[in-house]
Amino acid sequence: MKSIGVKSGSPLSSTNEMSVNLQNARRTLPLRLKRLEFEDPLDTDTLKCKRPRLSLPPSPGLAPCLRPLTQSPNPGSAEQHCVSRIGPYILLEATEGTQTYRAVHSVTEAEFTCKVFLTMCGFYQELIATYTRLPPHENISRIAEVVTGERNVYVFFERCHGDMHSYVRACKRLQEEEAARLFGQMTAAVAHCHEHGVVLRDLKLRKFVFTDRQRTKLVLQNLEDSCLLKGEDDSLTDKHGCPAYVGPEILNSRHSYSGKAADVWSLGVVLYTMLVGRYPFQDVEPAALFGKIRRGVFTVPDSLSPRAKCLVRCLLRKAPADRLEAGEVPLHPWLARPASPSPGNHLSPRNHSDQVVPDFGKSEDDADRA
């Protein structure tokens, strides 16, 4: 039985791909690694090693990050995937894109989420290095097991019950009491990452998934896009993220910017979207969208409580230095003592036809192109 180590010294970069700093990453969580002499074939053409980057959406449209997932154009995608057996696990249908599958343990019948990486990519250990660096936290997803085959590496996580992006779309918008309970868990996860030298970069609603059917417990998932810091300096230079969530300093800066402050801006977009049901900045034309983000001007509905308005504005401040730090967010009065919504905020959090969340074409993942 061998443990997976974290490679250091070689940045994760190539032409038209993002770089992730994984140097000097230390292991804190041992991972079990099994070597398979046999594995059922998967369609390796659909298992691409790609690194999303900030760019204009492939096609114009309102709020691309709140669009539903679209069917993959690759003919070898989910509908053609055959059931595969990987060690004690049975891989079923693809759940998100072509690299993530629903899996069942053949002995315990427990359900898992499985992410598949090509061994030929050579950097799968770097992609999952963040999971090994972070100490355990109740609101951050952990790797259950890693199994290696001749062609692919299979990383198993505990099963989730949907993500926050889909939940907000279904609910239209959340009432403040529920939003505060869920957002508090999100901020706890981000603060834990920042405390231990991890900048998330591509932070958005879809990164948070529910661990229970009642949808009360959240964990932060998909840490492969994160950046491991070498010290206290969180300066970054790459442009990475979903357009609707990107901070103005990333669009304006020709040099470096604070990665942690950019994560806090993204948290502000997350909170605004949960409470209002739309993004604070959106436009049909990508150039116009980025122009609005650069100006940093947005409106907060009067229906929100004063404390909710205050927290939104503390997170979405144009100057990065003026924003709250992630560790300070849970101390805000709206989270410490959630207020009841003002009389104008009378919408039910679910199934209310008068409040519509943007629902256009492509998903937020489709917007993360280079």
From TrEMBL:
It comes from the Eukaryota. The lineage of its organism: Eukaryota, Metazoa, Chordata, Craniata, Vertebrata. This is Protein kinase domain-containing protein. Belongs to the protein kinase superfamily. CAMK Ser/Thr protein kinase family. Tribbles subfamily. GO terms for biological process: positive regulation of proteasomal ubiquitin-dependent protein catabolic process. Pfam families: Pkinase. Residues 333-370 are annotated as: Disordered. It comes from Anguilla anguilla. SMART domains: S_TKc (SM00220).
